[in-house]
Design goal:
heterodimer, A: 202 residues, Rossmann fold, seven-stranded mixed beta sheet, 5 helices, B: 136 residues, mainly alpha, Arc Repressor Mutant, subunit A, 4 helices, 31% helix, 7% strand, disordered N terminus
Chain lengths: 202, 136
């Protein structure tokens, strides 16, 4: 924790007089190439940044000398994120999930403390969003589903999408255009409103 | 606050950020410590003078330079240093314990003041977020 540096190496000339911003986050999920980074970039103050988490995976195999080895291989998982400064010294971070299902376990770290999530859907590849929907449903995390209209064209009725995804009627479902700030705003507003409704219902 | 990047002639901000060692070598092989609970959105700010950076590993130095005079999240530090999130968590935790930087978890989701009694985010914070987004 940020204890006051009593025996700090040097007196802090750089110490800001103001209080650190309050930080909140919303997770942006969906399949590979569904537009998560575009969505984040449409509203972020900063160009979406990319961070990597190195995953160490154990694998047991046979080495060249014929002996059994306990091998570790490192895989990196990339996540894109953006940041928006809101009035009242609030910083909203938007974290995109790693696209591949096999990194679902990483999401626990990502969603810890999040307001909620936006699940982006490409109706041509509907199955790609199943893991995300299952994940958020299973953990009771507020989420909205946004059908990304590539080239601004909606190819499927929302009712059909809701049925195909088996979405609960309370899950907000809408069209979005990941390139459009106005559409992105609408999606984020819907998540926050849902999170607020959840609190009020408690 | 002097521009610390400018003091490094051999190292530009975006360019050659590769390190000659395996990522976790810079943490002494430690994967998790007290850093395990450090949220990736936790803000960090440097609390030390550039003079004290002598003898520090390049990775720690870079983190302190990035967070000098401005708040940086753990995730941003990871992106800018091109070090994996887990490595940055360990280094940031070390640097905070050594009083070189301050971690502001206050105000993140782990903080009681932004939370209601059940541990969820407080309604007042969410209202501010909602108003803020709507006004963008």
């Amino acid at each position: 924790m940020a204890s006051q540096p009593s025996d700090a190496p040097v007196a802090t000339a750089t110490e800001p007089s103001h209080v650190a911003p309050t930080v909140v986050k919303i997770v942006i999920a969906g399949g590979f190439a569904v537009g998560k980074t575009t969505f984040i970039g449409s509203i972020s103050d900063i160009d979406p940044l990319n961070t990597e988490a190195a995953m160490t995976e154990h694998s047991v195999g046979v080495d060249d000398a014929g002996g059994v080895t306990d091998r570790k291989t490192t895989t990196t998982v990339a996540m894109d994120f953006g940041r928006i400064a809101l009035p009242g010294s609030l910083w909203l971070y938007l974290f995109g999930t790693p696209g591949q299902d096999r990194f679902l376990f990483m999401w626990d770290d990502l969603v810890r403390g999040a307001i909620g999530a936006v699940v982006l859907v490409d109706t041509e590849r509907l199955d790609q969003c199943f893991p995300a929907v299952d994940y958020f449903e299973g953990r009771g995390i507020p989420f909205v589903v946004c059908v990304n209209c590539f080239d601004g064209v909606a190819k499927h009725q929302l009712d059909d999408v809701r049925e195909a995804l088996g979405l609960n009627p309370e899950v907000p479902l809408m069209y979005t255009d990941a390139r459009e700030k106005a559409a992105t705003k609408q999606a984020l507003v819907a998540v926050v409103q849902l999170a607020m409704r959840r609190i009020k219902e408690k | 606050m002097p521009d610390l990047y400018a003091m490094q002639s051999d190292d530009d901000a975006e360019g050659d950020d590769t390190y000659a060692v395996r990522p976790y070598a810079v943490t002494g092989g430690r994967v998790r410590a007290a850093s395990v609970d450090l949220p990736m959105e936790a803000l960090v700010e440097t609390a030390s003078d550039p003079e004290t950076l002598r003898g520090m590993t390049p990775e720690k130095k870079k983190i302190l330079q990035l967070a000098a005079g401005q708040y940086q999240s753990v995730a941003e530090l990871s992106a800018h240093t091109r070090l994996p999130l887990g490595v940055v968590r360990v280094l940031v935790t070390d640097l905070a314990e050594e009083n070189y930087l301050r971690i502001h978890t206050g105000g993140t989701a782990q903080d009681a003041t932004t939370h209601d009694e059940s541990g969820g985010l407080s309604l007042s914070i969410l209202e501010s977020v909602l108003d803020g987004i709507a006004a963008l």
